[in-house]
Each structure stands twice: as structure tokens, then as C-alpha cells.
Amino acid sequence: MELRKINTEDAMAQWEYTTVLPADENGLTNPFHGVSYDEYIHRVLPEMISYEHPVNMPDWFVPETFYYLWDNDCLVGEFRIRHHLTEALRSGGGHIGYSIRRDLRGKGYGTRGLELTIRIAKQIVPEDEIYLRVNKDNIASQKVMLKNGAYLAGEDETYYFMRIPK
What is the pLDDT of residues 1-59, one digit of tens each? Predict the structure, then answer.
């Protein structure tokens, strides 16, 4: 398995993944759900790539890099790293968001993908810990985080706030 940074060579597979990913699934938002391939190639892909080194973004915007988890020739999941935290991210979504294809869940891809993503995040984020958030009813994702060294740092009515020491 490998993580590949978003790129133009894998555009078809990335589009197929992105277009079927719901607009909001377990707290991971996807504003590009259902876009056409043409729109993905000409607008969405360049926009997503630009998030790593943003230009002319609002003050609240945080650089973010998209990675895709591949198992041989099959794209199985998406992992996003926000490069640093704002106060809203510190008490919200944190550094990493991810999803795994529905038909491939429960096969260890989330655990392995998060492990690979954490390795990269530790080199990028300046904070002492990697911040994550998970829905209280998403037991599978909680287990993925715990297997990767996370601990429970807090909670509210809807979410657990998890941390992974660097």
C-alpha cells in the first residue's frame, strides 16, 4: 500500500473517488460530490492541488494536502492533512480527515492509511500532537485512531477529540 499526493496522472481514479464520496460523511465534507469529469479536470483538481500552497485565500484558510491510499492499482481512500491549526480546527476537525471506499471498509485500509498519513503529518505540522475528531457513533474510525496511538483528549455531545503525540 502507498499514499500518493493528489496529482494529474491519477486524475480519473481521483475523480471517480471524489464524485461518489458524499457531500458530508461522518464529518468529512466533500464540496465536489457529483462534479463532472470535465469540471474536475479544469476546476476541481487544480483547486485541490493549490490548497497545499494557497494563494489569495481568506485569512482563516489553512494549507491542506490531499493524499490517496492505493493498494496496487486500486484507489481505496482519501486522507487530508491540514498543515497547522486555527482555533476553530483546534476545537474542531483537527489536522487529519479521511475516508475509505464503502465497499472496502473493515479490511484494515483505514488503519494503514492513517499510519502512513501520520508519518507525513509529523513532518508538516508544528503542533506537539496530531489532532483528530471522530463522531461518537463511528466506532470503526475510533478503533483506527486508537490503533495508531491516539488517546481521548475530550468530547462534546457529538464528537470525541483524539490526539496522537508526535
Answer: 999 999 999 999 999 999 988 888 877 888 889 999 999 999 999 999 999 998 877 77
Domain ranges of the chain: 2-165
Helix (H) or strand (E) holding 42: none
CB distance 156 to 110 below 8 Å: no
Which class is 2-165 in CATH? Answer: alpha beta
Q: Which amino acid type is present at position 117?
A: T
Q: Can you tell me the distance from the alpha carbon of 2 to that of 57, in angstroms, rounded to the nearest whole number?
A: 30
pLDDT in tens, 112-156: 999 999 999 999 999 999 999 999 999 999 999 999 999 999 999
Q: Which long-range contacts (C-beta less than 8 Å, at least 24 apart) are formed by 11-18? A: 11/40, 11/41, 11/45, 12/37, 13/68, 13/75, 14/40, 14/45, 14/68, 14/75, 15/40, 15/41, 15/44, 15/45, 16/75, 17/68, 17/75, 17/78, 17/101, 18/44, 18/78
Per the CB < 8 A criterion, the answer to whether 113 and 98 are in contact is yes
